[in-house]
């Protein structure tokens, strides 16, 4: 079939494709990737994660994570009112959110925000560096704490009452590249620990032992 016959058989919609048929493979790949992003993007939440393929899209949808940003997914999973462990992996490092289904791992950058999840305790704790949204459990679930976060210069970054989630943790969003002290008060007890929000900092703080002063 020549171009004239093609035009007769398939009017206008095919004409824009003729230049692509002669385009380099790299150009075709770019066009297809752009098309895929347009298909998976969510105009109502322009900063939401854009799945790279249908498999990733299905994974996010299966677990109620579709059309959310990485910070929104972290908040959603840490506050999730379900027993741990979850049926998939989910963890927060200093720079990204990592999700997995046992076969595939998906990583999403956190940008200029840093997530620190703290677990004040009285009797029992566990060692932790990167917070697992899917499996970490702490002693004091559903408790209200008075939390104050200050940097090394004494500037108050956060000061509020926070209630621990079903997993016993409390999540705090902080600016990057700062360090300081977290003070927690609960039922006549208090605890204090240092923190940092650098590229190699921990996202899971489980050393806040609440003691009577």
Topology:
Layout: H1 3-9, H2 18-21, H3 25-40, H4 54-62, H5 70-78, E1 89-92, E2 96-100, E3 105-109, E4 113-118, E5 131-132, E6 144-151, E7 156-163, E8 170-175, E9 179-186, E10 189-196, E11 204-205, E12 211-212
Parallel strand pairs: 4-11
Antiparallel strand pairs: 1-2, 1-5, 2-3, 4-8, 6-7, 6-9, 9-10, 10-12
Structure description:
With 213 residues, the chain is α+β, with helices and mostly antiparallel strands. The protein folds into 2 domains: 3-40, no CATH class; 45-213, Immunoglobulin-like. The chain is 21% helix and 30% strand. The strands form 3 sheets. A 5-stranded antiparallel beta sheet has the order 7-6-9-10-12, with no helix packed on it. It has a 4-stranded antiparallel beta sheet with strand order 3-2-1-5, with helices on one face. It has a 3-stranded mixed beta sheet with strand order 8-4-11, with helices on one face. The longest helix is centred in the N-terminal third of the chain and has 16 residues, at 25-40.
